[in-house]
Amino acid sequence: MTTNPDGMSRFRGKAALVSGGASGIGRATAERLAAEGAHVVIADLDMALANKTVEKIRAAGGSAAHVNVDLADDASVEHCAGAVAEGVSALHFLVNNAAILRQGRIEDGSWIENWEIETRIGLRGWVMMTQMLLPLLKQEGGAIVNLSSEGGYLGRPGMWVYDAIKAGVVSTTKTMAQEFSQYKIRVNAVAPGWIVTEMHFATHPDPTARKKELEETRIDSCLMQRCAGPEEVAGAIAFLLSDDASYITGTTLHVDGGRAGMSLGHLGALE
């Protein structure tokens, strides 16, 4: 479990929900929030991975639970929100992290078969999740962080659907910030750059070797010349959720290592 080096307990007595919290940035975020005292609800379709994360958090002394959800299914989203309401009287933090990436070029139409599932999970699903959880968020106010991507600002060949969705996340974040300010709910987004997560190595024939390769690859178009770990994005998310960001809303924080160029090189998308 991610530890807080400063021993802070910024989120003690607070409840948080992280969609896609079973792996990658979502898992790192769940662990970080729990390490700082929050009760974390992991909303994920992968029950096995989610339960492992819950067990890890509890073993480290944190508080966590898992709620099953399929963001592509409206009924599942509604059921998830109902289950959360049964477990907590108020929700203070929401991290809309879950998404999927499918590739397809505009020219050959290979994107068409991916359009529906990508948009349902990456845009419609998490907006509906927010809507369903809003009554809980309104109880005591709080903060929302939506996961965008540097791809939403750059545009990349073969990834237009994903990148368009991530650009939509930025716009929707601004809209939510305006609509929810009356409820004392701040809404911001994070746009990660090249992050090494299971999305990029889990299906490789040798996941461990591929993960190591990504971690050690020099990134010339990034000022820091490396990929980041998911815990580095989790730290930025924790900041935006905390009172340290009490006067920040409707903005996007770029966690990209000082990305200096437009070329993605041979690595492709790593957010």
TrEMBL record:
The GO terms describing molecular function are:
oxidoreductase activity
Keywords, A to Z? Oxidoreductase
Q: Which Pfam families match?
A: adh_short_C2
Q: Which InterPro entries match?
A: NAD(P)-bd_dom_sf (IPR036291), SDR_fam (IPR002347)
> Where does the UniProt annotation place the signal sequence?
none
Tell me the SUPFAM superfamilies matching this sequence.
NAD(P)-binding Rossmann-fold domains
Instruction: Answer yes or no on keyword Oxidoreductase.
Output: yes
**Record-stated family:** Belongs to the short-chain dehydrogenases/reductases (SDR) family.
PANTHER family under this entry? Answer: DEHYDROGENASES, SHORT CHAIN (PTHR24321), ESTRADIOL 17-BETA-DEHYDROGENASE 8-RELATED (PTHR24321:SF8)
Tell me the protein's name. Answer: SDR family oxidoreductase
This protein's species is: Caldilineaceae bacterium SB0664_bin_27
